[in-house]
């Protein structure tokens, strides 16, 4: 057994493959993966805290802007790094996809930075005025004289300040309108009083009020836009793209690992075999030398005997040969004659083709051992020996043709005897079985691969028949179902392990795949385990594809599920923490609002006190006592009243005195009445401020189960005054409905907005019998609250646009209410729909709220909205 | 034995010195409760910088070879002994060219969110490109600067020691920026007040601060730098430029960067740290005194003619914002 170049080459090739496989297995750099993954997470965190800071700023929970540049810089810097830190093992296509997302992100961030700068500037102007207004207002009130004119001014100023406070809490057109009315009152007062110093101060105050009215909606809109920029969504998508690339790289590395193991195994076997073969070859050689020596002497003896014999046999032989040749020529398989030493005696044309000889002369008298692959010499030798001992045998071996092609041969060999019955040759019929062997080997290899995959893959892999019963499963799946081997699951189905809630849709998905032949990729599935009373819930990411047989007919499905329960739980936790933070910041903001509300109640109380003092002073100094005096005079002259009036000098003046007194008294009454009216108005202000405070102070909160009727009544209450003022009749149709699990603040925000829209539609419609129908109905799994008006209605072409951001038909409207309403409803797992029969025919808006909120509310890019 | 002793003594002495330089100890005398809910935050005492870069940056900051005709250095307009400015309305570059906008102080500039009045540079490093290449300032090019510095023996060793690739544009900028980051002025009287020392301010100054807040000044002038972290329109409540007249291209402010109409007359809100030492004021250097500057701000940002008493008290408060550099009052 010599070490031929072929052996060396094979060895080198194997070693090379070994090294390449090893490198491929190790090409995932986990440090890079971790860094990239961490970067994405950090970006999401910073973005969330930036959004929170933006939302906190109107409540003065943040007094300085230092953290904004820090956060936006961190976002931009990390994004820039992200582009250069795409892990090296990501394939070029995936790299492109991720880079695309990074570019998208950095664009979003520059948008965000620009908006942030505008928000900071506008918010500063707004805060400037909000801070300074109470200072200048209080100064003006203190400096105003206590006369009637002064009191009028004070009342106007108090009114304006109250309205501004209300406006800063509830920014709407109506409040703005009220402020404008008060401002024109102020202008009018100013035009009546020419006092330069005071006039300038009043002008400055009016300027600040206007600035607040102008900037507040802008700041809110900017804030809204700012937190709506889908940075988080973009990051989430990027994460998705990257995760897929990472998983792909992992799968590839796993494949190479399997390859590596196989190769190692092959090498060990090869080395073992080589050692064995060397030993065998030695022994054989010795035996052959001894055999040859005795053969030689025997053959000499035989030769002599044979010569006589041969002549006799020759004739017969010629005939046999003639026949044999005919068979040989026409046989499609290789027919050959080989002597005991393997020397080729005869070969038909088919055989010549197999050994790649152009004519018989090329191989005649050659040893077949030159053609049989060295590895198979022992096989062929054994075959030949057996045949020469009179046996028929079948053997398989490899040959190397004269032109170097390797082929697998299957030989059926039998002894060929001469006339004397002596075996002189091996007659062999040989078939080329290269192709069938290759196919068989490939099949075996693929079976091995599949088995390795199914036994070792951490993912759940399964093949199902057309009835969704398991045909073959990975051990990972078996482990999940608490059996040891995937084969134990054969014949079972999802319904055996999961509740219908998961098993049914999964079954339907599979049927759909079988029907359409379309794969289902990357679906997140929630699994509820049957024997756990619904307590055990797991999440998987599943991809299913049709399973086809050779003819392309779909015979079932094939799927891979990855357990993502841990990821899902982490996500839910993050979401919960996020909500908690929002809630806390909102509550804190409310406390601040309460302080300023109380401050303003105090201001109005001042006016109440002034009014009371004026009334008691007026009543104390009243001329009512004079009436008593007149009565006494009349009683004194009761016996002769006509004479008293006619002749008594006092009596003569009495009618004139009475007239004067009556005038005086009615003036007094008017003043007191005015004062009482002012008083009542001020008390009403206080009530409104307090009521509003109550409605706002507790509304912020997490989702809680709330009776729908109460929510609707609260909303009606908040709009009550406005509806009454415009003569709108409210009809209530409440059906019994279970409590809904919602964020009270959001629902109120939507309902108040819908009612206000209805009121606008009614006033714009201008009909006499203005009416709003508020109904509550239960439908399956949700409660529907409808608000119908008989106002101007909605034109069909506007029906699809009313929910879009920026669309409005109201003068001075922002087109934001319905848009944010839809988003808020969707966030709670509900929905907001509109219906109208056309212009002039009223409109109905329906808010649907879920009785049981979905476990995963549709995540929105703007989920940080307060 | 003796040399080692001396060495240890030197080490102790120098380390003591550095700690005095870079880490001024907080005021002694109990642990007063710091005021945390104020819109203004104190400047931290410590910076975490590479002292070799700071030293190299200090040399470069004074280096007039950065300019084309070797006459102007960074320190020419940002004189550290003059609170980091030159007290001129407009500074002068090479060939006595007059600038177009007031040069702000370099102290605490690291705390500003962007650089230049119009915020066109995002970082200190980026800012350096501006004056070096501006024809009317240093009028040089980076090739020229690098060539000159490489020919100056004193720079080769320190550059090589810090940066493996020696004198490069990036490294020059890095060293200067690091030095600028060391130019902070902690321990102002107002910072002591913020850290809980109620005796640090007089009643008048506290009243000035109260007015500063309630008149809305802290809407913009807030944070560690008392400004320097946002943009705002000059003339939010009244038209400053119409009253002043004589418009210049520099008056357009951020509009010159973004081209957005909304950004016309918008400027970076300047830091008020050490403001008493950095006259004249505003981007056009038109206010010669703090009183004037406060009056103008009241007039155009608040829409109010502030009383002399208000102005006086607010100015008194602003004077408490003067901090210390290297342990000495600025």
TrEMBL record, chain A:
Residue ranges of coiled coil: 98-129, 296-323
GO MF, one example: protein histidine kinase activity
Residue span(s) of domain Histidine kinase: 671-853
Record-given protein name: histidine kinase
Recorded catalytic activity of this chain's protein: ATP + protein L-histidine = ADP + protein N-phospho-L-histidine
Source organism: Chthoniobacter flavus Ellin428
CDD domains: PAS (cd00130)
Superkingdom assignment: Bacteria
UniProt keywords, alphabetically: Coiled coil, Kinase, Membrane, Phosphoprotein, Transferase, Transmembrane, Transmembrane helix
EC number: 2.7.13.3
SUPFAM superfamilies from the UniProt entry: ATPase domain of HSP90 chaperone/DNA topoisomerase II/histidine kinase (SSF55874), PYP-like sensor domain (PAS domain) (SSF55785)
Annotated transmembrane regions: 6-25, 258-278
Pfam family, one: PAS_4
Statement: the UniProt record of this protein carries the keyword Phosphoprotein: yes
Domain PAC: 393-445, 522-576
Enzyme class: transferase
Lineage: Bacteria, Pseudomonadati, Verrucomicrobiota, Spartobacteria, Chthoniobacterales
UniProtKB/TrEMBL annotation, chain B:
Boundaries of every Cytochrome c domain copy: 52-183, 203-322
Domain of life, per lineage: Bacteria
Post-translational modification, as annotated: Binds 2 heme groups per subunit.
Positions of heme c 1 binding: 74, 77-78
Protein name in UniProt: Cytochrome-c peroxidase
Location of this chain's protein in the cell: Periplasm
Keywords: Heme, Iron, Metal-binding, Oxidoreductase, Periplasm, Peroxidase, Signal
The record's free-text note on cofactor binding: Binds 2 heme groups.
SUPFAM superfamilies: Cytochrome c (SSF46626)
Cellular compartments per GO CC: periplasmic space
EC number: 1.11.1.5
Major subcellular location class: periplasm
Top-level EC class as recorded in UniProt: oxidoreductase
Residue numbers binding heme c 2: 217, 220-221, 297
Cofactor: heme
Source organism: Chthoniobacter flavus Ellin428
């Amino acid at each position: 057994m010599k070490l031929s170049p072929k052996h060396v080459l094979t060895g080198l090739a194997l070693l090379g493959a070994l090294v390449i496989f090893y490198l491929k297995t190790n090409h995932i750099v986990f440090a890079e993966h971790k860094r990239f993954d961490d970067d994405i997470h950090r970006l999401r965190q910073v973005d969330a805290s930036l959004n929170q800071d933006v939302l906190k700023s109107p409540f003065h929970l943040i007094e300085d802007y230092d953290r904004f540049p820090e956060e936006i810089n961190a976002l931009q810097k990390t994004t820039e790094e992200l582009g250069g830190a795409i892990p090296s093992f990501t394939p070029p296509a995936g790299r492109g996809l991720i880079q695309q997302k990074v570019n998208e992100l950095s664009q979003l961030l520059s948008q965000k930075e620009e908006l942030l700068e505008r928000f900071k500037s506008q918010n500063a102007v707004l805060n400037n005025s909000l801070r300074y207004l109470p200072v200048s207002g209080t100064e003006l009130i203190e400096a105003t004289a206590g006369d009637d004119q002064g009191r009028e001014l004070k009342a106007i100023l108090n009114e304006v300040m109250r309205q501004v406070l209300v406006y800063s809490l509830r920014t709407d057109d109506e409040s703005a309108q009220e402020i404008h009315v008060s401002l024109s009152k102020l202008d009018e007062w100013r035009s009546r009083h020419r006092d330069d110093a005071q006039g300038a101060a009043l002008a400055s105050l009016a300027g600040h009020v206007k600035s607040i009215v102008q900037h507040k909606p802008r700041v809110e809109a900017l804030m809204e836009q700012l937190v709506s920029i889908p940075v988080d969504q973009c990051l989430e998508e990027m994460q998705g793209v990257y995760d897929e690339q990472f998983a792909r790289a992992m799968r590839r590395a796993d494949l190479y690992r399997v390859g590596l193991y196989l190769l190692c195994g092959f090498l060990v076997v090869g080395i073992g075999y080589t050692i064995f073969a060397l030993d065998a070859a030695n022994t054989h050689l010795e035996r052959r030398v001894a055999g040859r020596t005795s053969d030689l002497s025997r053959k000499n003896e035989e030769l002599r005997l044979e010569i006589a014999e041969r002549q006799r046999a020759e004739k017969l032989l010629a005939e046999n040969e003639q026949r044999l040749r005919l068979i040989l020529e026409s046989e499609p398989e290789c027919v050959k004659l080989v002597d005991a030493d393997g020397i080729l005696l005869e070969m038909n044309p088919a055989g010549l083709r197999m050994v790649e000889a152009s004519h018989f002369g090329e191989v005649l008298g050659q040893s077949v051992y030159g053609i049989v692959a060295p590895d198979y010499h022992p096989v062929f030798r054994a075959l030949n020996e057996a045949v020469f001992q009179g046996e028929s045998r079948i053997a398989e071996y490899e040959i190397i043709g004269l032109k170097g092609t390797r082929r697998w041969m299957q030989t059926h060999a039998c002894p060929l005897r001469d006339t004397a019955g002596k075996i002189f040759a091996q007659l062999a019929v040989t078939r080329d079985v290269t192709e069938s062997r290759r196919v068989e080997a490939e099949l075996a290899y693929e079976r091995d691969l599949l088995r390795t995959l199914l036994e070792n893959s951490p993912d759940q892999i399964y093949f199902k028949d057309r009835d969704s019963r398991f045909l073959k499963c990975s051990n990972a799946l078996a482990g999940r179902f608490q059996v040891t081997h995937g084969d134990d699951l054969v014949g079972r189905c999802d319904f055996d392990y999961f509740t219908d809630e998961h098993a049914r849709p999964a079954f339907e998905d599979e049927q759909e795949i079988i029907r359409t032949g379309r794969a289902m990729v990357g679906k997140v599935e929630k699994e509820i385990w049957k024997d756990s009373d619904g307590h055990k819930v797991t999440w998987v990411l599943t991809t299913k594809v049709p399973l086809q047989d050779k003819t392309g007919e779909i015979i079932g499905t094939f799927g891979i599920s990855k357990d993502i329960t841990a990821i899902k739980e982490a996500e839910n936790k993050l979401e919960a923490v996020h909500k908690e933070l929002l809630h806390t910041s909102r509550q804190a903001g409310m406390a601040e609002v309460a302080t300023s509300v109380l401050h303003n109640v105090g201001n109005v109380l001042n006016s109440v006190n002034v009014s009371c003092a004026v009334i008691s002073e007026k009543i104390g100094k009243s001329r009512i006592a004079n009436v008593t005096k007149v009565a006494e005079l009349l009683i004194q002259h009761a016996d002769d009243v006509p004479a008293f009036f006619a002749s008594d000098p006092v009596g003569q003046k009495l009618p004139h005195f009475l007239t004067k007194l009556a005038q005086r008294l009615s003036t007094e009454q008017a003043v007191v009445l005015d004062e009482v009216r002012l008083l009542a108005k001020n008390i009403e202000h206080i009530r409104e401020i307090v009521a509003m405070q109550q409605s706002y102070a507790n509304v912020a909160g997490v989702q809680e189960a709330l009776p729908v009727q109460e929510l609707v009544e609260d909303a009606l209450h908040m709009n009550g005054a406005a509806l009454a003022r415009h003569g709108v009749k409210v009809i209530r149709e409440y059906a019994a409905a279970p409590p809904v699990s919602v964020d009270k603040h959001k629902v109120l925000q939507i309902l108040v907005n819908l009612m206000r829209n209805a009121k606008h539609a009614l006033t714009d419609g201008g009909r006499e019998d203005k009416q709003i129908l508020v109904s509550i109905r239960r439908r399956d799994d949700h409660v529907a609250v409808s608000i119908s008006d008989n106002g101007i209605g909605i034109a069909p072409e506007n029906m699809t646009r009313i929910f879009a951001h920026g669309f409005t038909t109201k003068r001075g409207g922002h087109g934001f209410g319905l848009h944010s309403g839809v988003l808020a409803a969707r966030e709670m797992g509900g929905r907001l729909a509109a219906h109208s029969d056309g212009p002039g025919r009223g409109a109905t808006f329906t808010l649907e709220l879920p009785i049981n909120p979905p476990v995963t509310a549709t995540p929105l890019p703007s989920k940080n909205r307060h | 034995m003796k040399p080692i002793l001396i060495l240890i003594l030197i080490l102790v002495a120098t380390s003591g010195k550095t700690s005095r330089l870079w880490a001024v100890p907080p005021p002694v005398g109990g642990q007063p409760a710091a005021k945390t809910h104020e819109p203004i935050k104190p400047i931290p005492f410590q910076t975490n910088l590479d002292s070799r870069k700071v030293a190299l940056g200090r040399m470069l900051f004074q280096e007039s070879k950065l300019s084309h005709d070797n006459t102007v250095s960074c320190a020419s307009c940002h004189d550290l002994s003059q609170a980091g400015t030159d007290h001129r309305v407009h500074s002068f570059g090479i060939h006595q060219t007059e600038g177009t906008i007031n040069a702000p102080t370099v102290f605490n500039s690291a705390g500003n969110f962007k650089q230049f009045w119009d915020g066109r540079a995002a970082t200190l490093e980026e800012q350096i490109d501006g004056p070096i290449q501006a024809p009317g300032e240093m009028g040089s090019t980076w090739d020229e600067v690098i060539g000159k510095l490489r020919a100056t023996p004193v720079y080769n060793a320190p550059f090589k020691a810090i940066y493996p690739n020696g004198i490069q544009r990036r490294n020059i900028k890095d060293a200067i920026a690091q030095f600028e980051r060391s130019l902070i002025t902690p321990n102002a009287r107002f910072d002591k007040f913020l850290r809980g020392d109620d005796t640090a301010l007089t009643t008048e100054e506290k009243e000035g601060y109260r007015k500063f807040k309630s008149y809305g000044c802290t809407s913009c002038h807030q944070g560690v730098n008392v400004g320097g972290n946002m943009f705002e329109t000059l003339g939010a409540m009244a038209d400053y430029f119409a009253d002043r007249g004589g418009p210049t291209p520099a008056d357009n402010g951020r509009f010159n960067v973004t081209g957005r109409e909304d950004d016309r007359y918008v400027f970076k809100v300047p830091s008020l740290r050490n403001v008493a030492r950095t006259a004249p004021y505003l981007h056009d250097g038109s206010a010669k005194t703090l009183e004037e500057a406060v009056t103008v701000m009241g007039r155009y940002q608040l829409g109010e003619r502030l009383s002399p008493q208000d102005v006086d008290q607010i100015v008194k408060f602003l004077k408490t914002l003067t901090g210390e550099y290297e342990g000495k009052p600025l």
